[in-house]
Records
---
Amino acid sequence: MSSVLLEVQDVCKRYGEREALSGVSLSVQKGQTLGLLGPNGAGKSTLVSAICGLIRIDRGNIALHYSEAGAKNADSKKYIGLVPQDLALFEDLSANENLSLFGGLYGLSGKDLQTRIQSALELVSLADRAKDKPSDFSGGMKRRLNIAAAMLHDPELLILDEPTVGVDPQSRNAIFDALEVLKARGKSLIYTSHYMEEVERLADHLVIIDHGKVIANSSPAELYQRLPAQAALNFELAQALAPEQKNALLAMPGVMALELASSACTGALRLQDQDHAFACLQYLQQQGHQLLYFATAKAKLEEVFLTLTGRSLRD
Ligand code: ADP
């Protein structure tokens, strides 16, 4: 049996002249966390709305493969929990009352609803604020309450559209903790963001979209492989690096580039991988250089976007 939960095939969506999605295909496996990355305006929210059936697509197909026998396409909302970018909460109702209202919309009631509310509030670390109103909450707490609301009906797929925008560090951590718990429970997640490091923390698989097109669709490890330089050796020398020493370093195996400050004492060697750092350090010592500082660093996955598009993810 296939373990694919969601299949998006060749989806196109136009807003007037603007093509927001042009031939997007991706799939989400059961239990998988998909990081959907792209700069502002790439088409992430449009894709999320299309998956949730909130907008009509012009072309393509979106299919949710339910584990429950007999479920129909029209039931898709039952299997998806959406945490939208725009917060949908009633400021004058308590957290508990907000969740009762959302639960009611999903046909939940009575003791079952109360049990689910309690466990959803615990999941997002708001159990002690059940009686408080969102008007007294920080932006991050409101977002956590939104996540709780989206989980009440126990959906198989939770979609979070930029869940950490405008969120304080404490809530950010609470959100990550909650998502880790959901992952461990075997839920499938789609997490959209324009922060690579956030997505990297959670995602098993990454899809990068730009101008409505998929430009990468692979595991984080495979994406790293696409980086020409996967590591850096940052250094500071007591004396300036001579031009011939610079050329010798650049000719060494695995050295992709050398960025040198105007003093020629401080710099960074871009390396294919960290294993090449040792030979570079040895060379500098053989040349009589005194190293005041050195450290290796792994390249950031964020640089993949730069490599693929020539632009930074947050331009
Ligand atoms: P993202 O979520 O990646 O920031 P969006 O899906 O919101 O991107 O937007 C993709 C493109 O579609 C953008 O160029 C945006 O201006 C346009 N767009 C989104 N929604 C609408 C709309 N309702 N009407 C017209 N254009 C829209």
---
Amino acid sequence: MNQPCELLTDNCRFVQQIAPTPLVPVALEADGPRIWCKLEFLNPSGSTKDRIARYILEKQWRLGRLRTGSLVVEASSGSTSIAMALVCAQIGLKFIAVMPESVSNERVQIIKSYGGQIILTPRADGILGALSRAAQEAEERDAFYPRQFENVDNAEAHRVSTGQEILGQVPGGVVHAVVSGVGTGGTIVGLYNAFAGAGCPVRPVFAKPVETVMAPAGQTYFEAECCSFSSRVPGVVDGLSKLYSRADLPGLIEVEVQGRVAIETTRKLIRHGFPVGPSSGLNYAAAVEAQRQLGDKAHVVTVFPDRMERYFSTELFSGWQF
Ligand code: PMP
């Protein structure tokens, strides 16, 4: 990623600005742990997905499989489509985003404003419906389909850019734990590979959002384990990743975070001046637990993947008593 951009357009210089982002120590309580947080919401489209969009599309361009005017089709419930739309606009590619119709109107408008087209798939079919429709559209239109959930270049983008930046930013270049929720798995796999490859004694930490509901039982109420994975944390989805495999993440620590706690932590981060979305609260809450398990001296690193503005119409803001 540090070589000169090889896309022969003037806009290429702007694409190069996608990275780097700051890594800052964040403590929410005066005597609380200081977690090293990568401010990925500062990327131009507002999320870490700019990195994978740029890396994947640049590689295809270099291989001669894309040129000005080529068509890219991707399935995503949001961030990746927005990032693809932005990078396609910068380097002169056409873009179609295939998304479930449940996505927010803000997301649709952002993609359209970058010149992207939208295909909405039935709400009931979820992201799987969008994935199969994208495959079909790409086939019929002879388009490039990045397949973010299985494309190893997704994790590679994080290994060679996000990960190398962090190694240059964290004290002593040593990371003891890397914490992330899993959507495509690109972030946790790429960062783990970067840190382990640099010889760090790193533990991967999977931040898993869960929901617990109060269920009636006669006159009493008890807490019942309801569902793993929380609809309160968009972008972090269950079981779709073909990049994330426990076998490739030795010493994996799994930290469950209640969806309610992820939302409360996100609000605290916003109150501290970090304009982030729910997966940042999820990651931060899990990182605090990882720090507790690994001790004060451990350098625990996590990412703040995207910006709060994408969630004005969700529970993050609607349920917030200001
Ligand atoms: N947070 C947000 C807001 C996301 O959109 C995603 C990816 N869909 C993630 C976190 C998870 O990142 P990854 O796909 O690299 O696992």
